[in-house]
Design brief:
- One of its GO terms (biological process) is folic acid biosynthetic process.
- The chain is built from four helices and four strands; from the N terminus they run E-E-H-H-H-E-E-H.
- By secondary structure, it is α+β, with helices and mostly antiparallel strands.
- The protein has one domain: GTP cyclohydrolase I, C-terminal domain/NADPH-dependent 7-cyano-7-deazaguanine reductase, N-terminal domain (GTP Cyclohydrolase I, domain 2), CATH 3.30.1130.
- The chain has a four-stranded antiparallel beta sheet, with helices on one face.
- Strand 3 and strand 4 form a beta hairpin.
């Protein structure tokens, strides 16, 4: 598996559950590792055959500006979903950190790992089968 990564992305966003966090942006640090099975770019030398980390960075900037999430866990999950759904990663590790959240520690945060669903292709095939049955006037049995 080939890994494309961004480490130390920093930005400001409104996130948290305490009243003091809900009105002013605070800093976040994000690390993203996205796995793809042997990127075609190794052979083609074309950015279109891999995950473009510049585009991922732009997407992170947009997420920081647009999200309405409160928990770091949900924010990390949103990043994982973006990498899998929009960029085609088969595996991701996302770390989201609030630096210096408390005076007596360096950082707090979460780290998650997710895999792309392996049933994605089988769902598409099943969906096509259902459409064929419906078009022929037959309704498939539920499994």
């Amino acid at each position: 598996m080939d890994l494309i990564f961004i480490e130390g992305f920093s930005g400001q966003t409104v996130i948290g559950i305490h009243d003091s966090e809900l009105h002013h942006p605070q800093p976040l640090l994000i690390d993203v590792h996205a796995g793809v099975p042997r990127a075609r770019a190794c052979d083609t030398d074309r950015i279109g055959d891999t995950i473009d980390y510049g585009m991922v960075r732009e997407r992170l900037v947009r997420l920081m500006a647009e999200h309405r999430l409160q928990l770091l866990e949900a924010f990390a999950e949103a990043i994982a979903d973006i990498l899998i759904d929009e960029f085609g990663a088969s595996w991701v590790r996302v770390k989201v950190v609030k630096p210096r959240k408390f005076d007596d520690l360096q950082a707090v945060g979460v780290q998650i790992e997710r895999h792309a669903p392996t049933h994605r292709a089988s769902k598409l095939v099943h969906g096509a089968t259902v459409l064929n049955f419906l078009a022929s006037g037959m309704v498939p049995a539920k499994h």
